[in-house]
Specification:
- The complex is a heterodimer.
- Chain A is α+β, with helices and mostly antiparallel strands.
- Chain A is built from 24 helices and 21 strands.
- In chain A, strand 4 and strand 5 form a beta hairpin.
- Chain B folds into two domains: 211 residues, P-loop containing nucleotide triphosphate hydrolases (Rossmann fold); 93 residues, Helicase, Ruva Protein, domain 3 (Orthogonal Bundle).
- Chain B contains 14 helices and nine strands.
- Chain B starts with a helix and ends with a helix.
- Classes of the chains: A alpha+beta, B alpha/beta.
- The interface between A and B is medium-sized, with 28 and 31 residues.
Chain lengths: 666, 319
């Protein structure tokens, strides 16, 4: 049971507000992933407790609190069907914080809350490890330390600024330990435990199907899909086609990837030419297994993890990408497949649902009859896009059942997927094997970091047609309609009056620069801190002259460095303490004198007893030594409190104290 | 605190104790059995502070003030504070002189070297502040002209215990202007018997000799400020101040002005004790009377105001 004094102390609103601020701030990063009632409960508990302190509202008694505890525990269990795992665990923790805050009566309760706050802050790294979050986190660790110092005081709170400085010093002392653990702690490939892909939830990205209107959402999204660092000269925009899912199946409305077993087995022997392009891709999590690369990827890192599908798409073999994923690729921009495809494969890429798009089929059949080559048919098709009053817009009118017919002959408004879809249908109808390729096109160069940013709004769809003797050839029908979109690499969305936020800011230089600078900081953070895994660690250690150390050796090294740093810190701190103590050599001599008196049965000096008073008391209880005691006291007062308390006074005191021996018979 | 170590000791005064002890002795003859209180009063005067005496009527407050004035040859005035007292009654009034057609300022009773402000909390805040402001500024402004108060200027104010009816409490900011507050209290039985046997002390006051010249007093006052303050002592004083602020025992801690008052009073005490520097004991001696009127115990702390100072001293170790 706490004493009344402690209870009074925490009733001061200042302490309650500190604790409330930390409890709310530490749990804030978790709010987005929690059901609304969890933060709601916390806020209600905080308001209730503060109201009780301020306006004397009644607080729940023990029975009600127990009911509350059971109810909220059951609510968490009901919500998640478990109390395990990140979200359920966090929800439970925050519910507990709310109830603990509500019942907090003693300083100890508040200190417990602070410790939980540290834990919640740490756990927020499981939600988000972005740059912004880490800044928030570090500042809140500092604030929590300030609160811990403040709430640990028995008296009234001290100035926040002074306490903040003190907390900052404490954290600075801890900094070397943090760095050593970060650099040397043995790294495991991949996360230690499965961090759920919260990042990717609700975030837009490509999908494995495409129906009219799907990419509209992406067209307006400012989210970053990935960033690319080219090792040499970046290729021009006409080559910046980042290949994603290849869609070969059409059901009359929706294009989709092949299901298992549907794709004919096709091994192409490619003839590569042109200068290879090497680059590093930093992929944002998108909860799919796709890995983006320029045509046509030949070599890539993490090769055990990434393989190429028969239609040239790279995919990750095991897990979908739920955290930032880095890889390096070398691509050849030009390639040829000399071997013809077999009939079965040709059939596969010519399939169209029967009875759909009669007008388009008719048009294609006419072309086939009039043309001598596939090339000519392609040119015919592109020319109707170019010359037939087609418009590029992100807000096209809806299409009926025969999507290609409606689009080609009626609405004539659409964006890449409409063009790619209609073009592919025309090609197939004309007997040319064709498929839709989705992915991203272009990217924005960040001059601060010399890398490209590819946004979701760069999502694109184009067509590949099979030409005998050449292989799969990329044809981008959108380029025929909106060449700007292709040549600039940035969307030509301004033509439709619908702009993304980023596009709206592009015109204001300083905002644009600030956004790019922010992105550069973010990218380096991801590349060097979040991305600090086994490979970077090995590279760093090799640079330090250690090649491929065993993890046990690494752990031993980390431990040794920790011990060394702790020893150094201890030395430093004791040195700075001693420096202030050295001033008080006189005090230590006087304490020695006090010990001698204690052995001579003089009652010890009370901590608040002045030395002069003490000396007089000692003189009167040891009258035989009164003269020496008076001399020592006077020398001490002189050394410590009088203006000429210099070295001679100290040495006089040293001699007197050394000679003093009250235990001997006087 | 390098500057404090450079301060030189009591320059110009060979032995302050030799000057002060006879004064104390003479006062002790008038106010019997209150040696400690007299010493504090004198320290307050040497520290250029003003003295507040909270006590019942008739325990010798007036006699003490009068005796102090007499023994140091100071001009003496007394103002009885009442609820209808006006500021002009304290500082003076401008009167139109018909013969030369000009206003002439008639100085009020405040223009004296030792002023006894009796029952100060019986007056309205307006009249109180007229006095208290003059105490702080050591000058009076009336009708646009400023008149310096005489030096030394020493106010001994008395107040009735605040529980009494018909009192206006002094605001905290004004009560801060008094360096010390002391209580005389009833004399002990022996002293009271002597008092009863020897009759009215006021006649004795009239017969007192002046023992300290104004010049000597001013010298002593100057010497007080030069009494050495060592780092170790300042550490101790800071620990005391921190305790008043952090322990939660008081509504508010000691203000910087209060802390400075503590130092100044301790310097005066050290000078009177003949110490070359301020000792922790000097601080402990003056602390109760310096803080008693400045600190309000926090709610729920039932501390006898008189015990507050000792409680602080006991709680803070001397280092």
């Amino acid at each position: 049971m706490a004493s009344n004094v402690e209870r009074d102390l925490i009733e001061t609103p200042e302490r309650l507000v500190w604790a409330a601020g930390i409890a709310i701030g530490a749990s804030l990063p978790h709010w987005p992933i929690l059901p609304i009632w969890v933060p709601g409960l916390l806020l209600v508990a905080v308001a209730w407790r503060l109201g009780a302190a301020r306006f004397g509202w009644p607080l729940p008694n023990m029975l009600v609190r127990i009911v509350f505890a059971f109810a909220s525990f059951s609510a968490v269990l009901f919500q998640y069907q478990t109390i395990n795992g990140l979200e359920a665990g966090t929800a439970l923790l925050i519910v507990m914080v709310a109830l603990k805050y509500l019942e907090s009566k003693t300083a100890r309760d508040q200190l417990v809350l602070m410790i939980i706050a540290y834990f919640l802050l740490f756990a927020s790294l499981l939600v988000d490890r972005g740059f912004l979050m880490v800044i928030y986190l570090l500042s809140f660790v500092w604030l929590t330390t300030v609160a811990l110092l403040q709430l640990g005081r028995r008296g009234s709170l001290l100035g926040t600024v002074d306490t903040a400085k003190q907390a900052g010093r404490l954290l600075l002392h801890a900094m070397p330990i943090m760095l050593i653990l970060f650099v040397l702690f043995p790294r495991l490939p991949g996360p230690l435990w499965g961090i759920p892909g919260i990042n990717s939830m609700g975030r837009s990205g490509l999908s494995d199907t495409m129906s009219p209107g799907d990419l509209t959402e992406l067209g307006l999204s400012d989210d970053v899909a990935f960033r690319v660092d080219f090792y040499d000269i970046p290729p021009g925009p006409d080559r910046l086609y980042w290949r994603g899912p290849v869609l070969s199946n059409f059901n009359g409305r929706t294009w989709s990837t092949d299901g298992p077993g549907m794709r004919p087995n096709m091994v192409d022997t490619l003839e590569l030419s042109g200068d290879p392009i090497s680059y590093r891709v930093m992929l944002e999590p998108h909860d799919r297994r796709w890995v983006f690369a320029l045509d046509i990827p030949v070599e890539w890192t993490a090769d055990r993890d990434i393989r190429m599908e028969s239609h040239y798409q790279l995919v990750r073999t095991r897990r979908s990408i739920r955290s930032n994923f880095d890889y390096e690729v070398t691509s050849y921009p030009e390639y040829r497949a000399r071997e013809p495809i077999n009939e079965r494969v040709r059939e596969y890429y010519l399939r169209l649902p029967a009875d759909s798009n009669p007008r388009s089929r008719e048009l294609a059949a006419r072309w086939r009859a009039d043309s001598s080559s596939d090339r000519e048919i392609i040119a015919n098709a592109l020319s109707i896009f170019r010359e037939g009053q087609f418009f590029y817009t992100l807000t096209p009118p809806p299409l009926g059942a025969n999507t290609a017919d409606d689009f080609l002959f009626q609405t004539r408004e659409g964006f890449c997927e409409h063009y790619a879809s209609a073009f592919t249908i025309l090609m197939r109808a004309a007997g040319i094997p064709a498929r839709v390729v989705t992915g991203y096109h272009g990217g924005e160069l960040n001059p601060l970091g010399e890398y490209y940013i590819v946004y979701q709004s760069n999502a694109h769809a184009w067509t590949e047609v099979w030409l005998d003797g050449e292989g799969w050839v990329r044809v981008d029908p959108t380029a025929a309609v909106a060449p700007d979109r292709i040549s600039s690499g940035i969307s030509g969305r301004s033509v439709v009056g619908e702009q993304s936020r980023r596009a709206a800011f592009q015109g204001i230089p300083w905002i644009r620069n600030a956004l790019l600078a922010w992105d550069a900081a973010h990218t380096y953070w991801n590349a060097w801190v979040i991305g600090y895994g086994p490979e970077l660690q090995r590279a760093l250690l090799e640079a330090l002259g250690m090649s491929r150390p065993h993890w046990a050796k690494l752990a031993a090294l980390a431990a040794a460095a920790l011990v060394a740093i702790s020893a150094l810190l201890t030395l430093y701190l004791s040195w700075s303490f001693r420096r202030s103590a050295r001033r008080d050599q006189a005090l230590r001599l006087f304490e020695r004198f006090s010990h001698k008196l204690e052995r001579a049965k003089v009652a010890p000096r009370a901590s608040s007893e002045g030395p002069f008073d003490y000396g007089q008391r000692a003189s009167s209880s040891l009258p035989d030594h009164a003269k020496e005691i008076d001399a020592i006291t006077r020398a001490y007062m002189k050394a410590r409190y009088e203006p000429n308390g210099d070295k001679t006074a100290i040495s006089e005191l040293t001699g007197l104290v050394r000679a003093f021996d009250p235990a001997a018979a006087g | 605190m390098a500057t404090t170590t450079l301060r030189t000791a009591t320059s110009g005064i060979d032995d302050p104790g030799r000057l002060i002890e006879p004064v104390l002795e003479a006062l002790n003859h008038i106010i019997v059995g209150k040696r400690e209180e007299l010493r504090l009063s004198l320290a307050c005067l040497l520290a250029r502070g003003h003295l507040l005496i909270e006590d019942l009527p008739g325990v010798g407050k007036t006699t003490l003030a009068h005796a102090l004035a007499k023994v140091m040859d100071l001009s003496y005035q007394r103002i009885q504070f009442t609820s209808d007292l006006l500021p002009a009654d304290v500082i003076g009034v401008s009167i139109f002189r018909r013969d030369n057609g000009q206003f002439e300022f008639h100085k009020g009773p405040i223009f004296s070297q030792l002023l006894l402000a009796d029952e100060i909390n019986r007056a309205t805040p307006k009249a109180q502040s007229a006095l208290l402001e003059a105490m702080e500024e050591r000058q009076v402004t009336a009708d646009g002209s400023t008149y310096a108060l005489p030096t030394p200027f020493f106010v001994v104010a008395t107040r009735n215990p605040t529980q009494q009816i018909g009192t206006f409490p002094l605001p905290e900011s004004q009560i801060d202007r008094f360096l010390m507050q002391i209580t005389l209290g009833y004399p002990g039985p022996t002293e009271e018997r002597e008092l009863l046997a020897n009759g009215d002390r006021r006649t004795l006051v009239d017969e007192m000799d002046s023992l300290l010249s104004v010049d000597a007093l001013l010298n002593l006052q100057a010497a007080v400020e030069n009494v050495h303050l060592s780092d170790a002592l300042l550490d101790y004083v800071q620990a005391l101040i921190a305790h008043t602020r952090e322990s939660g025992e008081f509504v508010q801690g000691l203000s910087p002005r209060g802390a400075l008052a503590l130092i100044r009073a301790a310097q005066a005490w050290a000078l009177m004790a003949g110490h070359d520097g301020v000792y922790p004991e000097d601080v402990q001696a003056v602390l109760p009377s310096v803080i008693v009127h400045r600190l309000d115990p926090a709610q729920g702390r039932d501390i006898d105001p008189a015990g507050t100072g000792q409680a602080i001293i006991d709680a803070v170790p001397v280092t």
